[in-house]
Design a protein that fits this description.
564 residues; PH-domain like; single chain; 11 strands; Acyl-CoA Binding Protein; 16 helices; seven-stranded antiparallel sheet
Length: 564
């Protein structure tokens, strides 16, 4: 819930706490100490005071008055401090917006990784059949600075985001959002409120207030502080009119004084200092009873969700196995049908071939009989001619010629008859083979028919359950009482997760470096911002957010020059 609209009514004498509590109750939020209601007056940010009436604040006169429900203070370690899921979600939304709006500097390779967790939180597990090319086209996932810095198309960015998104399979929304915050909290500008200040000499500086302490920056470098004051090393913070004073715990270190442009800004700085210091000290004490109860409830809820996810995962696995079995049976059935169709077609072809061969054999046999008959007739004619007395020599010559022709015709008829007889025998043999092929085709069709009638594996193990949520066996084997054994097992799982996280962190850094190297060739150097250059310099020196603050907090000699 980002916007809260308030219509002024003189009869309603609500205090800031009344309106704030109403919003928190509406959201179901119990970790209220991180949040506040923010408004803007004369280009200056202000926060609604809990003990002051809403109408007594210097709020804009136009109606309705708009308040932004935002995180006012940030945790040092999001995973350890943020207990409620709604708290994590609100921080995720706010930090994500700050990164996209470039209020928090994020290097390109980390931007891609954070985008992949944002996609996991919104879309759930990656499914190539659902999340096809272009499904992120309308999503705002990367800062415009990062997009403009490289010669890369939206499709190229989507491909790299999706590659990491696919690796987050199995993470629930709250887990993906927490991974996002764990990476974001290591960014240099995360959780820092910046204010323009001047020291005694009038030198312009920036004051940064965050969960770890107070930091002094050069106006052109919001990433690396020149000097830092951890909360546990500050003795006193005060302001008089526009002058602000920081007194270190070590009296040997000079007092640091600076001026801001507006009294209202000094009040805001003091509010943030007091709130952050209180939370800093609170973290180092035993948890209050309320927080202990919240953490216990959160552990139980996490365990319940974990078991629920495991149950759903088992159901999903059983469903997928049943679907695979069904698909395999359907595929086998289709294969058997195709084999049966092919066998039927082969049988029909064999029958047709047999019929054709039988018909051709019959015709050939009849032709052979006819030729044999003609040969007999020619033989008879020859005998008749021989028996005829030829009186004259001419008649004798003509007769001899006719006899010769008759003999040649008879010989030819005999040869043709013999060839036809052989062809008839061959056709009879082909007919016999065709009938044998027909017999084999019928036998194969019978075998296929007997195969397709077999009973599949036991339906109790492969069939898809008709009512998945019931799963009596599974539900009976789980316990939701959260006894001590459950908590011990959960603790062991958490320790195991920590070890796995360290290994994943190493792998993650390798992936980030790999992506950075991969896209480095596509970078447009002339479009690099001052923060890009500063970040690269810090990275090349091996400087990180926390070790930089540790180093500069020890630099007491630099404090003297800044204070002057």
């Amino acid at each position: 819930m980002d916007l809260v609209e308030w219509k002024q009514n003189p009869q309603v004498k609500w205090k800031g706490k009344d309106l704030f509590d109403l919003v928190c109750r509406t959201l179901g939020l119990r970790e209220t100490w991180f949040f506040g209601l923010q408004y803007t007056i004369k280009d200056t940010v202000a926060w609604l005071k809990m003990d002051k009436k809403v109408l007594d604040h210097d709020v804009p006169t136009e109606e309705p008055v708009t308040f932004h429900f935002l995180a006012k203070f940030y945790p040092e370690n999001a995973e350890e401090e943020l207990v409620q899921e709604i708290t994590q979600h609100l921080f995720f939304l706010q930090v994500k917006k700050q990164i996209l709006d470039e209020k928090i500097y994020c290097p390109p390779e980390a931007s891609v990784l954070l985008a992949s967790y944002a996609v996991q939180a919104k879309y759930g597990d990656y499914d190539p059949n659902v999340h096809k090319r272009g499904f992120l086209a309308q999503e705002e996932l990367l800062p415009k600075r990062v997009i403009n810095l490289y010669q890369m198309t939206p499709e190229m960015w989507e491909e790299r985001i999706t590659a990491w998104y696919a690796e987050h399979r199995g993470r629930a929304r709250d887990e993906a959002e927490m991974e996002y915050l764990k990476i974001a909290q290591d960014l240099e500008m995360y959780g820092v409120n910046y204010f323009a200040i001047r020291n005694k000499k009038g030198t312009e500086l920036l004051l940064g207030v965050d969960a770890l302490g107070l930091h002094i920056y050069d106006p052109d470098n919001r990433l690396t502080p020149k000097i830092s004051f951890p909360w546990n090393e500050i003795r006193n913070i005060s302001y008089s009119d526009k002058e602000f004073t920081i007194k270190p715990l070590d009296k040997k270190i000079d007092v640091f004084k600076f001026n801001s442009s507006k009294l209202r800004v000094n009040k805001l700085i003091l509010q943030l200092c007091i709130g952050n210091h209180d939370l800093f000290m609170r973290r180092r004490k035993a948890d209050s009873l309320e927080v202990q109860q919240m953490k216990a409830q959160a552990r139980e809820e996490k365990a319940r969700k974990q078991m629920e996810r495991q149950r759903l995962a088992r159901e999903k696995q059983m469903r997928e196995e049943a679907e695979r079995t069904r698909d395999e049976l359907e595929r086998r059935l289709m294969q058997l049908k195709e084999e049966a169709t092919m066998a039927n077609e082969a049988l029909m072809r064999s029958e047709e071939t047999a019929d054709l061969l039988a018909e051709k054999a019959q015709i050939t046999e009849e032709e052979a009989k006819l030729l044999a008959q003609k040969a007999a007739e020619a033989e008879q004619e020859m005998q008749r001619i021989k028996a005829t007395a030829i009186r004259t020599e001419e008649e004798k010559r003509l007769m001899e010629q006719k006899v010769l022709e008759a003999e040649m015709l008879a010989l030819k008829m005999a040869e043709e008859s013999e060839r036809r007889a052989k062809e008839a025998d061959q056709l009879k043999q082909d007919l016999q083979e065709a009938r044998e092929s027909e017999r084999r085709a019928k036998q194969k069709l019978l075998e296929i028919t007997s195969k397709s009638s077999y009973t599949p594996m036991n339906s109790s193990t492969t069939a898809l359950p008709t009512d998945l949520p019931s799963f009596n066996l599974i539900s009976e084997s789980l316990s939701f009482d959260f006894k001590d054994t459950d908590m011990k097992r959960l603790s062991m799982e958490i320790e195991k997760e920590k070890v796995e996280y360290m290994e994943k962190s190493k792998h993650l850094q390798e992936q980030l470096n790999e992506l950075k190297t991969e896209i480095e060739a596509l970078k447009l150097k002339e479009r690099e911002t001052a923060l890009d250059i500063l970040h690269n310099e810090n990275a090349s020196r091996g400087n990180s957010k926390h070790n930089t603050i540790k180093k500069v907090s020890e630099g007491s000699s630099l404090l003297s020059s800044l204070a002057a």
